[in-house]
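Let us practice reading a record.
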Amino acid sequence: MGAPDPRVVRQLRHDLDDVYELLDSTNRTVTSIAATQRRHSNRFEEVQQALDLQGGRLERIEDTQRQILDLLRGGSGATEEP
């Protein structure tokens, strides 16, 4: 078995270096995407909390409106609390 052809060795080394460059680029892209997904998740959580607060406020407004309607209809204005 003879010595390997130097051109083949150089080409293999070049190919290997290219693979490492692609891997590094892919890792940077994945890291960037993961960071963006974390930011989106945080923002979605903030939006959900704001919606939950608004939902509670709307429920209180609806309760007040029911009491007003009851008073206007001649009721006692007292409502049962759950």
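A brief commentary: The two ends are 89 Å apart (CA to CA).
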